[in-house]
Amino acid sequence: MAKLATMTVWDVQLGLAIHVKAPNGKYIVIDLGTGTYESGNSSPLRKRMFDNIAYMIITHPHLDHISDILNFDINSPKILQRAKSLTNEEVMEGVRYCDKAKFEKYCDINDRYNSPVRYDDENNTENPDNYGGLEIQTFSTSACDHSNFNNFSIITIFKFSEIKVVVCGDNEKDSFDVLMRRSDFKDAVRNADVLVAPHHGRESAYHSEFVSLVNPRITIISDTTKSDASAVDKYAQKSRGWKVRGEERKCLTTRNDGNITVEFGESADPNYYGTLHITTSK
After folding, report:
1. Dihedrals φ, ψ of 15, to 5°?
2. Domain ranges of the chain
3. Please, is 1 exposed, middle or buried when counting C-beta atoms within 10 Å of its C-beta (0-12, 13-18, 19+)?
4. pLDDT in tens, 131-151
5. The domain 4-280 is classified under which CATH number: 3.40.50.720, 3.60.15.10, 3.40.50.800, 3.90.320.10?
6. Contact 280, 261 (CB under 8 A)
7. pLDDT tens track for 254-278
8. 137 pairs with which residues across the strands?
């Protein structure tokens, strides 16, 4: 019987919100973007109200990636990862009054999750058995200028049964330049099946060497009608292609395709190592 992980890239309109269900039922949440009431995705975090959120990653503290944070305590994760090199004082600097409560909540959570994760913790991501065999790696850099939080974004790599998914935050060229000097990072992202593109597909985040190394079958971009997803064509040119709804696709966007669901993992067919299936809500 096949064992699968399921990743949903929500059409949140604003920012990024990704939920990954591991083969053993545990959930990994990446970022807390919010959508519209019309789309039904106004609070993706509420959809996990009764689920086991074992692990959460906040890629970086920008509003479009933490806009759902006031719902954090509805179902708070066992383990939280965030850009620890950014201080609360830096995070709060220049915050608008209307957004103050959300950033104060981020700082409160940042202070709350201050205990190291034990290796024997049943949710420790260093042991794939804790997530039903799903391997999870993360990379980031603290070497960039603190004036641009985008470059502190955490990049996550999921791997299960030879299928690999790379999820970026809002990384821009400076952080990719640093990370691409690391052999372990290059080994981790090389020849992936799915790439969730950095910074909503914008030109400022497009890094040709990185995308060529990832060599994705398909690229997913979380964007809105207000987003300048100016590098979509470039991602499509460097993606190998995969069938979605019976059509060969190289690039999917939440703007045009709605919620995007990726199932990946063990194949029930003994002739294949892994399986990859992608569906959209539009």
Report:
1. 85, -140
2. 4-280
3. exposed
4. 999 999 999 999 999 999 999
5. 3.60.15.10
6. yes
7. 999 999 999 999 887 777 778 999 9
8. 157
Token output for 102: 């959300």
Token readout for 167 is: 């999820």
Q: pLDDT tens across 170-204, in order?
A: 999 999 999 999 999 999 999 999 999 999 999 99
Distance (Å, rounded) from C-alpha 226 to C-alpha 243?
28
Whole-angstrom Cα distance, residue 59 to residue 16? 10
- For 74-111, how does the pLDDT look when each residue is reduced to its tens digit (9 = 90+)? 999 999 999 999 999 999 999 999 999 999 999 999 99
Amino acid code (one letter) for 223: D
Q: Which amino acid is at 275?
A: T
C-beta of residue 174 within 8 angstroms of C-beta of residue 199? no
Looking at the DSSP bridge assignments, the partners of residue 274 are: 266
